[in-house]
Specification:
Order of helices and strands: HEHEHEHEEHEHEHEHEEHEEHEEH
Radius of gyration: 38 Å
Distance between the termini: 149 Å
CATH class of the largest domain: Alpha Beta
Number of strands: 14
Structural class: alpha/beta
Strand content: 15-25%
CATH architecture of the largest domain: 3-Layer(aba) Sandwich
Number of helices: 11
CATH superfamily of the largest domain: Response regulator
Shape: elongated
Largest sheet: 6 strands, parallel
Strand order of the largest sheet: 2-1-3-4-5-11
């Protein structure tokens, strides 16, 4: 073999080796890099805390009246205790049943309150006028009968408390003459006067009832004057459908007996006090607030009594005979279980004509439209 041939073969071998090295290098699989650790997920932001439900109350009298408004404000305080920081409540007191009521209630709705309670009959028309302008607000009206899409009514069967007071009065009177200081001649008040009289007649058919109207809910001077007039006219036991403690205080001063109304008024006249017909608004206020919080609120009307724990006779005086206390207990139990009806015929009007036939039981429509006195109540119902 020539030198040229040898050199050619060596050149070919070198090229072959080089090519093999290149091919081996190109065919080598690269090792995969270790996967990077996943980035930590950002911490979830805490859910925003729900804004508390704002609730407002419009009161016709002062919270310290010892009666009607005091009872409503106790209900407001019970709400705060029940729901804690889920709600915020506020109130405006001494709101007259006039154009001022519309201004105040409209302002309460405009302040962001989503539940507004109007706590007297005279707020009904202003609230009806305001409700369409605040569709996202729920309006609740006490003692009325008109409703709207976002306004409903609520009331206590105060006539049940009035009847129990009458039972005690009928058994305790010595003159057989009872006196009532009345506020405004609407069915609610007339119904209470009549029920008080029916309760008294259930234990003492000789009883007669005198009435003096003061044409206002809270007017201590007028209430005092009316109470004095009734006592001078022979009444030895007084009942009231007004909001202050003036009637009981007058009875205490003049040596007669009387009842507390709406709240326990024992402290205002301990010697005169025979018992108090107390309204407990807390159960209803809790229900209404729960309805709004849970989105189940609906319009309509609610009328609760002894059965629902909304009205009762409390702090009955020690000198009331045991048999009278037992009679009150029987009435209370009968109202609770439905076995007793206060308005069951025969019942006669003050003119002697039958207003409820024998064994007939008045329904709520009848009770809501009472504009007459029953037999035993003197005088005529004012127009």
């Amino acid at each position: 073999m020539t030198d040229l041939s040898k050199r050619s073969l060596m050149k070919v071998a070198a090229l072959t080796a080089l090519t093999s090295a290149v091919l081996i290098g190109c065919g080598k699989k690269e090792e995969a890099a270790a996967p990077a650790a996943p980035a930590a997920a950002p911490a979830a932001a805490p859910a925003p805390k729900a804004e508390p439900l704002k609730i407002a109350f419009a009161y016709v009298g002062p919270v310290g009246d010892g009666g009607w408004t005091f009872a409503h404000d106790n209900g407001r305080k019970a709400l705060e205790k029940e729901f804690g920081d889920k709600i915020v409540t506020s109130f405006v007191e001494n709101v007259p049943e006039s154009a001022d009521a519309e201004r105040v209630i409209r302002d309460l709705a405009g302040q962001g309150n989503k539940l507004v309670f109007g706590t007297t009959f005279g707020y009904m028309e202003p609230m009806l006028k305001i409700a369409p302008d605040f569709k996202d607000v729920k309006f609740e009206h006490a003692t009325g009968y008109k409703t709207a899409e976002n306004m409903r009514t609520y009331d206590s069967r105060t006539y049940e408390g009035a009847y129990m007071a009458g039972v005690i009065a009928g058994g305790m009177t010595k003159s057989n003459t009872l006196g009532v200081v009345a506020s405004i001649p609407i069915p609610e008040v007339i119904r209470n006067i009549n029920s008080f009289t029916l309760g008294a007649q259930s234990v003492n058919p000789k009883v007669k009832t005198k009435v003096v109207w003061v044409n206002g809910w809270f007017d201590p001077p007028k209430e005092t004057e009316a109470a004095t007039s009734l006592i001078n006219g022979g009444a030895d036991i007084l009942f009231q459908n007004t909001d202050s403690s003036a009637v009981l205080q007058t009875a205490e001063k003049l040596g007669k007996r009387a009842f507390g109304w709406d709240s326990d008024m024992t402290a205002y006249g301990p010697k005169a006090h025979l018992g108090s017909a107390v309204i407990n608004w807390a159960p209803y206020y809790i229900k209404a607030t729960k309805d709004v919080l849970e989105g189940t609120w609906s319009t309509g009307g609610v009328w609760w009594g002894v059965k629902e724990g909304a009205i009762d006779m409390v702090s009955v005086a020690e000198d009331v005979p045991a048999e009278l206390k037992a009679k009150v207990d029987a009435v209370r139990n009968g109202l609770k279980d439905g076995s007793f009806s206060i308005w069951k015929g025969p019942i006669l009007g003050s003119d002697g004509k039958e207003v409820l036939a024998k064994d007939a039981v008045a329904d709520d429509k009848f009770l809501g439209g009472i504009k007459f006195y029953v037999k035993g109540v003197e005088g005529k119902v004012p127009n």
